[in-house]
Amino acid sequence: xxxxxxxxxxxKSFNADKARAVPGVKEVVQIDPIAAGANSAGGVAxxxxxxxxxxxxxxxxxxxxxLGPNASESSESLSQKFGELIAxxxxxxxxxxxxxxxxxxxxxKVEATYDLPLLAHATxxxxxxxxxxxxxxxxxxxxxxxxxxxxxxxxxITKIPREKINVHTTLMGGGFGRRYQADFVVxxxxxxxxIGKPVQVVWTREDDMQHDFxxxxxxxxxxxxxxxxxxxxxxxxxxxxxxxxxxWDPPDRAKPAQQEVGSAAFIPYSASNYRVEYANPPSGIxxxxxxxxEDSMSGFTVESFVDELAHAAKQDPVEFRLKLIGEPRKxxxxxxxxxxALDTVRHATVIRLAAQKSxxxxxxxxxxxxxxxxxxxxxxxxxxxxxxxxAADGKVHVDRIVCAVDCGRVINPDQVKAQMESAIIxxxxxxxxxxxxxxxxxxxxxxxxxxxxxxMPEAPKIEVFIVPSDADPSGMGEPGVPPTAPAxxxxxxxxxxxxxxxxxxxxxxxxx
Length: 512
Description:
The protein is α+β, with helices and mostly antiparallel strands. Helix content is 29%, strand content 26%. It contains 14 helices and 21 strands.
C-alpha cells in the first residue's frame, strides 16, 4: 500500500497503468482513510501474486498527493510550541500548599528543563495482517496485542456482525504498544472487501518507521527549593507534550493530561508544597502507547532532577532519595484513583537492594561513573544502578545495570528477569539512539541505518534481583523501562560532571 508521506494527506489522483504492467500484479485499489478507533491513513493498494511483485507495482504507481493540513509541521515548529507553553503556567494537575510562594522565597533553588523526542516502536517484525472478507462473515490472522480491537475494526469496515468474525491471534515479532493499533488490520479488510478475496498486507521497514503511532515528544521544566539541611521545601513540575488522548478522543471528551503525566503527579519524595501542570500543543503527529507510556518520560525527568537536587544538597544520591521518601506512607494516584497507591516502604526497599547489589559507594576509575534511578509504574517498583564509561570524545558505553524489582508475588522468576532484561535493552536503544524527527509533515527516518537500536557489542551486563513479596502480582512488561535512561544519565554525571537533559544522549554534549 502506498501511503501519503505526510500525516493526514491522501491520494489526489494516480495512474495505475505502469503498476498493472508489472508481472504478477492483479489489482490496484484506492482505500480511504479511516478515523476514530481504527485510524488508518488510507492510500493506494497494489495487489499481486507475491510480495515482491506488489512492492514493484507500488514503486511504479504515479500518484499525486494532497499533502493535507499538517504538511508544514516539523520538529522545529513543535519545539517552538513547546518553548511557548513551558514558559507559562499550564493546567493544574495537582496543587498542594503554595509551591510558587515557597519557590519565590527560597534561598536555595534548583531548576532544570528536559527534552525527550518522538520515538518509533521499531518492532523487529513490521506490520502485517491477513483478512478474508466474505459475503456474511470474515476471518483474520493477526499478530495483535488486542484481538478484540482487531475484530471491532473489521466489523467497522465490513458491517459484518462481530459474532461472524473470527480473529486468529498469531505470534508476533514485538509489540511494545504498536500492535494495539488496528490500522494494518483495517487496510487488509478494506482491500479484501474491495476485491472479494483473502489478502495479506505486508509493510516494509520503511512503511513501519514512517507510519507509526509514535511515543510522544515532551519538554518538562522542574523547579525545587531546598532548606539548609537539604529537605525538599517546594516542587513544581511543568509538562508539555503531544497528547495521546488529545489525538484519539473527540475534542469534547478528551482529557489531554490523562496519559502524559503519570507518576510525576505522585512522586515518593515528600514535599508539602507540590505543584504539577500540563499543557499540550496542537499537533497532527499520530501518537499512542509506547512501552511504559508516559512513565518513560516522567521517570526520566523526575529521577534526573532528584539527582540534581542531591548534588545541590551535597548528599549521596541514594541517601538523599531515602531521606526525601521519609516516613512510611501511601501516595494515591491522582490521575487514576482506582489504581494502587505508591507504597514508599516498597519503593525504598528496591532502592536499597539495587544499591547494595551494585556495590554502591565503591571507588570507580577515571571516566567511569555509577548512577541510580527508581520508578513506580504499572503498580511495580523498580530501581536500577547503571555503571558507564565515557571516552574523551564523549562516547558512552553502558557497562553494567543492576536491577531490583518488586512486582508482588512472583509466579515465574525467569519471566520477571526476562521482562526486565528486555525492557532495559529497549530503554537503552531509546536513550542512546532513538529519535524521530519531522520535516514538512513527514518522518525523516527510514530504517535502522538512521533509527538505530542497541547492537550486541553495546549491551551491558544485566543483573536482576527480585524482592520476595506476598502482595498481589503487578505489571512486568513495562516497568523496567522508566528507570534505565535516568540511571544512565546520572552515571554520566558521576563520571564527567555533565548533566544529560535531552535524549538521546549525544557524544557532542559530553565532549563540548
